[in-house]
User: Which sequence fits this backbone?
């Protein structure tokens, strides 16, 4: 889907959450808040979040929903803080609220959630992260994992200084080392800003996707399809591989500079006048109070005290004027400096013959299952996708071939949903 009328020429995104095949309920949540105006983008950017809850009964579902509600709301309220500081404070606020809710009821005791938040700003992509949900960036033929998994497997691999070595088989893969809610304190990773380029595609996802689909496969699917189709295809692949967990993701593709198309003259976001730093409310309070005090003491004839109050008012006025003159982006995005250590993993992911072989095999198995179960399928449409895929494959156009194979798989999966249950 396009982002909105204001951003249709510069951003495209899709969000999807699927219960999977083995879970009775969906404990994942997500949030998307696009800037309403150019000024909103310049100050706070576009916001995306994925959360994967954990806990008995409905506890995990509640924990992830609190994160999806609280983090964006608090982030946008804290306008006096820089984006990295506001994002950190928002995640910590969510941790407090989840912990307090869990402590107040035996049914929710110990509940928690992962949280991976992405903000797209003029300075670049900024992330806050707790848990093992992930954030990726596809740029060209390379996919990068921008976040570090807070899991036992990753912590052990990091201790060995080689993330490419497979963990020992006896190490459980489902143990996470950090989450929001179980404890009063939590350490939050911040990453970025990662500069944006036209064509960059960002993916946030729960481990229901990353546990079933390899990084290079994720990147290849993102390269083959626009965001909405890519998200749906990735859900289908995860489910065809067993779908053991909830599957949630947000795909956001940068089409160009983030300049709102609202019918008004907009200043490019990177210009020195694009963003005005908000003045701390305490400065306005000091200015007003000092000015009133100066007038009062002058009226009473206490010239020395009145002069001091006047000087305080003048100093506050100069401070306010200085803050308004400094572009906000200079307050935190210092050239050459970056938060965190990401990207943490990088993979080449250009669609290739091996990727096409896997898709073709998946498609054929699904087709055989459809035939044996006597699904009611529009085989003419399916065969058109198959013919286009094979033609592109013969021409070694693996991106076009992958696109048509993925569309063939999605078509059959959608047809499956329409089948009447057997009596």
Assistant:
């Amino acid at each position: 889907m396009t982002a909105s009328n204001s951003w249709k020429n510069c951003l495209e995104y899709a969000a999807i959450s699927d219960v999977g095949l083995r879970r009775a309920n969906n404990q994942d949540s997500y949030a998307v808040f696009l800037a309403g105006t150019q000024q909103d983008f310049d100050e706070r950017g576009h916001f995306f979040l994925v959360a994967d809850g954990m806990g008995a009964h409905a506890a995990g579902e509640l924990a992830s929903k609190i994160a999806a509600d609280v983090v964006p709301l608090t982030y946008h309220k804290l306008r006096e803080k820089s984006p990295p500081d506001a994002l950190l404070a928002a995640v910590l606020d969510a941790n407090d609220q989840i912990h307090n809710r869990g402590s107040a009821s035996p049914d929710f005791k110990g509940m928690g959630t992962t949280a991976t938040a992405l903000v797209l700003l003029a300075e670049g992509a900024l992330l806050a992260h707790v848990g093992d949900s992930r954030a990726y960036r596809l740029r060209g033929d390379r996919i990068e994992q921008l976040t570090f998994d807070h899991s036992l497997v990753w912590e052990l691999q990091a201790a060995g200084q080689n993330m490419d070595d497979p963990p020992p088989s006896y190490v459980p893969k489902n143990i996470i080392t950090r989450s929001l809610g179980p404890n009063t304190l939590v350490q939050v990773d911040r990453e970025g800003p990662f500069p944006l380029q036209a064509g960059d595609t960002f993916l946030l996802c729960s481990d229901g996707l990353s546990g079933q689909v390899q990084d290079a496969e994720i990147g290849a699917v993102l390269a083959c399809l626009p965001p909405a189709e890519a998200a749906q295809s990735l859900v289908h692949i995860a489910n065809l591989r067993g779908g053991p967990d909830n599957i949630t993701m947000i795909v956001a593709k940068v089409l160009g500079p983030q300049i709102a198309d609202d019918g008004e003259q907009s200043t490019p976001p990177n210009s020195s006048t694009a963003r005005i730093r908000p003045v701390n409310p305490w400065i306005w309070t000091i200015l007003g109070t000092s000015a009133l005090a100066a007038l009062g003491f002058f009226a009473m004839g206490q010239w020395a005290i009145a002069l001091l109050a006047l000087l305080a008012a003048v100093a506050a006025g100069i401070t306010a004027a200085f803050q308004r003159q400094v572009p906000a982006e200079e307050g935190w995005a210092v050239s050459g400096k970056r938060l965190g250590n990401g990207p943490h993993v990088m993979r080449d992911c250009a669609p290739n013959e091996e990727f096409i072989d896997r898709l073709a095999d998946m498609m054929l198995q699904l087709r055989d299952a459809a035939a044996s179960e006597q699904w009611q399928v529009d085989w003419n449409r399916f065969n058109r996708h198959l013919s286009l895929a094979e033609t592109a494959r013969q021409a070694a156009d693996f991106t076009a071939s992958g696109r048509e194979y993925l569309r063939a798989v999605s078509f059959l999966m959608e047809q499956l949903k329409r089948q009447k249950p057997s009596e």
